Amino acid sequence: MGWQTILKGTSMSEENLYLKILEEEQGVVRVTLDRPQKLNALNLEVLKECCRVFEALDLREDVQVIIVDSAGKRAFIAGADIEQMAGMGPLDFRHYTSYLRRLARVMTSSEKVFLAAVRGVAYGGGNIMAMNCDLVFATPESRFGQQEVNLGILGGLPRLMHLVGARRAWDLVITGRTISAAEAENIGLITRCVPEKEFDQVVIGYARNIVKKSAVAVRLSKALKKIAEKVDLDTAYEYENELISLCFDSRDTKKRLSEFVEGKSK
Q1: What whole-number distance in Å separates Cα of residue 23 and Cα of residue 226?
Q2: Do the Cβ atoms of 214 and 253 come closer than 8 Å?
Q3: What angle do CA 123, 129, 131 make, to 5 degrees?
Q4: Do 133 and 227 sit in the same domain of this protein?
Q5: Given the DSSP bridges, would you call strands 143-145 and 121-123 parallel, antiparallel or unpaired?
Q6: CATH number of the domain encompassing residue 153
Q7: How many structural domains compose the chain?
Q8: I need a surface site. Which of 91, 132, 191, 236 has the fewest CB within 10 A?
Q9: What is the pLDDT along the chain (266 residues), one digit of tens a residue?
Q10: Which residues of 164-194 are buried (b: 16+ CB within 10 A; e: fewer)?
């Protein structure tokens, strides 16, 4: 199935050069970054394509989970395309990072669930891409890090601080050290480290399980997640209460509650 079909309902007409798009099953779409000869590094063209595709998928009512993975096993995303970046001036780099921010916005603001399936290294922009996802699964051989300090630049600190805490984030950014998937799971950077032989089944199984849940509850949970990251606890509680109340206008919610009550009475 071609990407034009997957992105139905949009006005997109450009061909994708770096992304493969596959509808795994109802409600689940897999987006694969296909640039293995460059270790799936993020050049400007890749970022533009990711923004265009994710924004289009975000408009599709039938999509609930977007799996983000990459071609090959050496690298999920090795980082930015340093060859391209080395030739940038300040305004060029500002233009480049505007797409990084745009990509982060669509992934974190969307009510779709983004699930990163990481094989290999996720460094710099690759780790940031994974951090933008709601869930991250990785094979034991995968490694994570923010190595920008080795190149005379910086990056990743704000999101890292939110996910793993200030001291751990500072340690990773200021040293540029890389960590294993096991350590990444231990500090909360990723969701789960999964053995290679089970990896594909676990990833699609997890996505499939999300699709079986109440679509309304999942969407509103993602909306709550977005707000709860930005406000104080009391405000988050108030917002949660409003969103839970909205669920009671859903036929699906009423059906699930009735089925639960009927099941308890048998």
Answers
A1: 26
A2: yes
A3: 95
A4: no
A5: parallel
A6: 3.90.226.10
A7: 2
A8: 91
A9: 444 445 554 434 457 899 999 999 999 999 999 999 999 999 999 999 999 999 999 999 999 999 999 999 899 999 999 999 999 999 999 999 999 999 999 999 999 999 999 999 999 999 999 999 999 999 999 999 999 999 999 999 999 999 999 999 999 999 999 999 999 999 999 999 999 999 999 999 999 999 999 999 999 999 999 999 889 999 999 999 999 999 999 999 999 999 899 887 66
A10: beeebbeebbeeeebbebeebbebebbbebb
pTM for the complete prediction? 0.91
Residue 142 CA to residue 75 CA, distance in Å, equals: 8
